[in-house]
Amino acid sequence: MDYETKPISRSGLRSISKFVRQMFGCKSDNVPFPVIDALERLPDLFPDTNCVIVNDNELPGNVFACCSPKSEGGFVIKIKQTVYDDAYKNKNPAFLSFICHEICHVVLFYLGFTPISNVSISEKDKIPAYRSVEWQTKALCGEVTIPYEATINMKAKEIMKKYNVTEASAKYRVKQDKQKRNI
Questions:
Q1: pLDDT for the residue numbered 115
Q2: 78 - beta bridge partners?
Q3: Which candidate, 150, 142, 149, 141, places its Cα nearest to that of 170?
């Protein structure tokens, strides 16, 4: 499921990512984004938003975390217990990314990237990426966890080690560099 929202480019999201990193206390682009600390600070920055760690069976099998609007306003982020535990204790890059993605949903919403309507769009009805709530959130998460300027010309393994991100995320970032050089 996805929703259409107002448009923004990757470069626009890249600018927002700098603000997000600073907002959550990341003083340098040369350090990993503190996902768990950001999650804990989220209610301080967005008082009507909270996080709940739930039993694994409370969310569908393929859903590790989700962000939902609350009827009284704001959001609740639900995270499976095993996902939170492995992110917290073992710094699991995939699980940290799932949590960061949900944090980015909240940030984008409060910056005005709200759904145009309450009707979700199925996979077959494509929304252009720059107008997609899910694409924008995924892209912002990538920019927050892998700062663009700090990673220019880095190899995927270097990015993985320095920023504690998944191999897929690091390879995608390297691919962006290659595409930019080929233009």
A1: 87
A2: 52, 66
A3: 142
Read off the pTM.
0.94
CB contact at 8 A, 36 and 88: yes
Q: Tell me if 7 sits within 8 A of 130, measured CB to CB.
A: yes
Phi, psi of 68 (to 5 degrees): -130, 145
DSSP 110-162: HTT---SSS--B-TTSPPPGGGBHHHHHHHHHHHHHS-TGGGTT--HHHHHHH
- Distance (Å, rounded) from C-alpha 128 to C-alpha 16? 20
- Could you tell me which residues come within 8 angstroms of residue 141 by beta carbon, excluding any fewer than 6 positions away? 97, 100, 101, 103, 104
Cα 57 → chain centroid: 23
Q: What confidence tier does 2 reach under pLDDT thresholds 50, 70, 90?
A: confident
For residues 47 and 7, what is the distance between their CA atoms, to the nearest angstrom? 27
Domain residues of the chain, as ranges?
Answer: 10-147
Q: Is there a contact between 155 and 149 (Cβ–Cβ < 8 Å)?
A: no
* 33-56 pLDDT per residue, tens: 999 999 999 999 999 999 999 999
